[in-house]
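Q: Can I borrow your eye for a moment on a structure tokenisation matter? Would you mind producing a protein record, from residues through to fold? Write it directly below this note and I will take it from there.
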Amino acid sequence: MTTTAKPLTTSSPPNTLRVGDLVEVRSAEEILATLDDRGEFENLPFMPEMLKYCGQRLTVQKVAYKLCDTISRSGNRRLDNAVHLTASRCDGSSHGGCQTACLLYWKEAWLRRVEPDEPHSPSAPTRIDLPLLELNTRKEPAPDGQPRYRCQATELLRAAPICIPRRNLGQYVTDVKTGNVSAMESLRGFLVVMFNIMQGLSKRLLPRRLWFRDGLPWGFVRGRLAGRTPTAELNLQPGEMVRIKTKEQIEATLDQSRLNRGMGFDEEMSRYCGRVARVQGRVTKCIDERTGEMLTMKSPCITLEGIVCAGVYSGNCPRQFIPFWREIWLERV
């Protein structure tokens, strides 16, 4: 790989993969040949954490033709020619040990569709200029000299520059055609979005006494505290079983911005209230998607096995974030 590597093509054909398709990740040499000087293809970075998947066969888990904007909160945005693959999350090893564990984005140009019975011919080892690839994981340092990182999450607004209107019916048809969700799930997602639009309109146009459920979006999560929020320390460890508290119990720990010590609790998380799950890990640091700076948590957060944001209340977004849980929202079983 050289610093002047150019993309093989400036654009890709429309999405051709569907959920359940078996693909083989192309060799590192083939993928690196598609990248520009910034280590990107169509403004999406290929990260060092993805190299270990080269040559592996994985299944398409979701077609990532859209994503929810967690940087500027502009809603869902369109991403072309990308998918999420099963069991391929970023381990943060080249990004300061970030523990967000984002589901990786794979451009179709980096993949090859294969049949289940097709013989697997492992590719020969490729010499990779890893230090050069890792150079593209850094931005200019912050004013205080602290490192700042570039990753797929920090660059998504460039990779997906076009907003998808919430009322765009085509996206709900595509949700079904790609296999991301069933027809009933797509209909539910559309109805939730329409309800939330009406709630927003009622708060702008109607007097407060006419608001339904205080104009809250579907899921109706409400913070109740005006001052400092409470905390709890359970010292939960991976492998322990916990129960997620009821929504009412968690709401009692939130301020009016639905935050507990700066950590948000939203409608997607409320769907899991009452669920029993196993502790997956303790999170102490993660990259701020807006700035690229590494955030260190004063109090560790908990991740739970099998608990992801399913996008049910956010237009069927397929990103499948792993939510962070405050220990005060959990109880040992």
Q: What stands out?
A: The chain has three domains: 22-114+130-163, 165-215, 219-332. The CA atoms of residues 63 and 118 lie 23 Å apart.
